[in-house]
Amino acid sequence: MHVLLKSLIPIAETIGKTFGNRCEVVLHDLTIPEKSVVYTVNGDVTGRREGQTFDRLVRSVLLNKNFTRDYAVNYTFETEDGRRIKSSSSLVRDEAGEVVGVFCVNYDITFMKTLHDELELFLPMQEDSSVICPEMAADQDVTTVVDTLIDNIVSGRKKQGLTKQDNLEMIRFMDDKGIFLVKGAIDKVAACMGLSKVTIYGYLDTVRGKNGKS
User: Fold this and answer.
1) Which of 35, 57, 99, 102 is close enough to 28 for a disulfide, judged by CB 3.0 to 4.6 Å?
2) Distance between CA 127 and CA 162 in Å, rounded?
3) What DSSP character marks residue 97?
4) Which residues form the PAC domain (predicted)?
5) What single DSSP character describes residue 33?
6) pTM value?
7) β-strand 37-41 against 23-29: which pairing, if any?
8) Are residues 61 and 167 in the same domain?
9) 58 and 145 fall within a common domain
10) Domain count, the chain
11) Which domain covers residue 69, as residue numbers?
């Protein structure tokens, strides 16, 4: 775990204990993207466990129209069992300004729906904030974060030596996580992997076909 994230554990515990078991706090270490979850409080809210990876970072945070000053707040999503979650996320930067992690707070607001009138001030939320258009434009900060993610994903696997199947799995992972929604990501991935853009497009066609994606 990155030392900066370790220093945030008391804050995570404080938030989780203050707001109770409907409030989940998750620390992501983006220097290890494929196992980014390094600490959780009340992880049963969304089923978060250490060793898992990020899910909504690119789509719901970095490409959120209201993502400013390194944070996005009050975006919502549903769990697989239909519960409504209100979420807020902040980037964590080191002394050099590099993004090394994300601090996330997830609150189960399902039970509050019946109290909406009384709790209206507590529930400002952005509906349908997920990104659905491919290759969306991104500002410089978003591009920098995604470039760093790509570097970390590729460098972590390059150490092991890569086969074609390894390359396909890497492309599938990045596609699942929304990396290719950011304009310029294909160029960056091709450069990092030492492959042509045509090859990356071919890999994308392959993994999306296997996943039943259009």
Assistant:
1) 102
2) 41
3) S
4) 71-121
5) G
6) 0.78
7) antiparallel
8) no
9) no
10) 2
11) 3-122
CA 117 vs CA 103, 113, 120, 121, 214: distances in Å: 30, 9, 5, 9, 41
Q: Which amino acid is at 130?
A: S
Helix (H, G, I), strand (E, B), or coil: what is residue 176? helix
Q: Are strands 37-41 and 71-78 parallel, antiparallel or unpaired?
A: unpaired
Six-digit token string for 123: 């529930």
CA 25/CA 48 separation, integer angstroms: 9
22 and 114 in a common domain: yes
Q: Tens of pLDDT along 58-100?
A: 988 998 888 889 999 999 998 888 889 999 999 999 999 999 9
Cα–Cα distance between 32 and 113 in angstroms, integer? 37
Burial of 105 (0-12, 13-18, 19+ CB in 10 A): buried
Q: Are residues 14 and 94 in the same domain?
A: yes
In terms of domains, do 69 and 118 share one?
yes
What confidence tens digit (pLDDT) does each residue in 92-103 have? 999 999 999 999
Q: Which residue has the tokens 């030392």?
A: 3
Q: How far apart are CA 11 and CA 193, in angstroms?
A: 38
Q: How buried is 137 (Cβ within 10 angstroms: 0-12 exposed, 13-18 middle, 19+ buried)?
A: exposed
Question: Could you tell me the two tokens for 42?
Answer: 């009340």
Which tokens is 38 given?
């390094």
> How many Å apart are CA 21 and CA 107, to the nearest integer?
9
Q: Are residues 115 and 77 in the same domain?
A: yes
Indicate whether 28 and 108 sit together in one domain: yes
